[in-house]
Amino acid sequence: MGKLFPHIPFVHDETPLSWAARQAAFHTGGRLVPFLNDLQIPAIDLARGLPEAVQRLCEKADQNPEPVFQNTITAIGLRRHRLRGCEFSSEFTTGLVTRFCPYCLSDDCDGEVRPGVSMRHRLMWRLAPVRTCDVHGLPLRDIRSGAWHDQFHELQGLGSEIATEQALALNDPRQPSKLQAYVENRLAGQTGPKWLDGQDIDQAVRATEMLGGLIAFGPSHLAANMTPQDWDVASRAAWDLVSAGEQALSQFFSDALATNARQEGTARPRKAYGMLYSWLSASRLAKDPGPIRDILRETILGNTSVVTGQVVLGEPVLNPRLTTISSIAKAEKIHPKTLRNILVASGLVNAEDQLNSASVVVDYWKARDLIEDAKHAMGLNAVADTLNASRPVVQALVELGVLTRVQDTSETGSRVVKAIDGRSVSKVKRFLERDLVVVEEAPDDFEHLAKAAERSRTKLKIILDLMFKGHLTKMLRLEGERGFASLLIRPSEVISLMKSPPPDLPEDLQFMIPGA
């Protein structure tokens, strides 16, 4: 077959399939598929917007292909499409539903001898968020016959259905939603609200509609029960909020969660966010929903109790902020009562409350350092046993700061808070075991710590200060003993140092030197 004659020009607002159907009506008086078969163009290829099919149709019709490609929705992968540089999922289109305005079609056919040639399917009618005719202010009508040819949206084969819709009374006119206008403008190359423009067009639309469903119909309403007109209402309800951007969305989510907490006694995200939460938490969410999920997730993590590993909106929580005392205790392998005492001492938990560790929520981030300390907490007896030292030696090391307490406070009776930090104990132990020369027997001029203090007439605390500041250089460790029981000190070295005390000797210790 040569060039089609006469030329049927492409109209700027129609689809390639619509144009092909009008040519079929003009040149053959028949339907779309046989006409395309005659042109050796697979109808399914044209329906998918494949460039080869569109180009061949333009060549046969002697048509400049540029405006045709401009209106071509091209399949680019599994349920993904592209139009005018915008990529989107199949759900952004009407799918097998043919959407139209019966009054626009009446206008097309008015005064025409061959209405099938003039009746065209508009490109914008192929988009799911376009629900209102911007000419007549009428809700667009949807038809799906269930036949295989639904995918071609051939108006010329829907004569009786269209006539039925045209016979209905005109509803009260309405303006297209601002979301619909945004979609049309964005496809025309215009910019819109920053937050919406920062994501794919279908992400922006779905986020607006789902959020609007929550706003307009409440958290108990199901998305599955929404009608096309409900979605239109939803898109209008959320427009101002999504236009305001991320900060406004975050505040809205926080307020919704706070309202739910007052109603339920504790914040329950699923009940607070309804269909929005169900959508974003679906285990089989095939498409990336865009930035709205991150905003909602941050709100949930910042305001509700979660545990490590818990899946929140599709992702496991690695570093929870708010969680219960019992959950933290389990994760950190600490007794809940011990953890409670730490949190009370730090002021993170009110001591006057009758606490249930399973229900009290705390800021995990603020508690983490305290918990780390608690995991290394050791009582005085345990420290004395570990270092093989007397309690006076341990107490002196604490006063000197060689051994540190878990937390600097004495305002609580918590044993944990008064305990010694095991990490400082380990440092002392390493010093005794690694830094001293080992001998099988004590030399004549060396003594154990207590005896060295007695012979040098020097307070034990002073000797310990000299030792850990590096002023005593002639210390030994007795083989077969451990901890401070293995320590050997030369009293004469202590006496020599006391004749001219080091300048870094604390003032309170200087007063303990005989004759000072």
Give a quick rundown of the structure.
The chain is an alpha+beta fold and 516 residues long.
Architecture overview:
The chain has 26 helices and 15 strands. By secondary structure, it is of the alpha+beta class. It has five domains: 16-167, no CATH class; 191-316, no CATH class; 322-375; 377-432; 436-510. The strands form six sheets. A four-stranded mixed beta sheet has the order 12-14-15-13. β1 (74-77) and β2 (80-83) form a beta hairpin. α23 crosses α25 (491-499). Mean pLDDT is 91; it is low at 409-415.
Q: What's the tally of helices?
A: 26
Shape: elongated
| Low-pLDDT windows of residues | 409-415
Overall average pLDDT: 91
Radius of gyration: 40 Å
Main β sheet profile: 4 strands, mixed
Strand content: 5-15%
Tell how many strands the DSSP assignment holds.
15
The portion of residues assigned to helices is 40-55%
**Structure class:** alpha+beta
Strand arrangement in the largest pleated sheet:
12-14-15-13
Oligomer: single chain
Structural domain count: 5
Straight-line distance between termini: 120 Å
Features:
single chain, 5 domains, alpha+beta, 516 residues, four-stranded mixed beta sheet, three-stranded antiparallel beta sheet, 8% strand
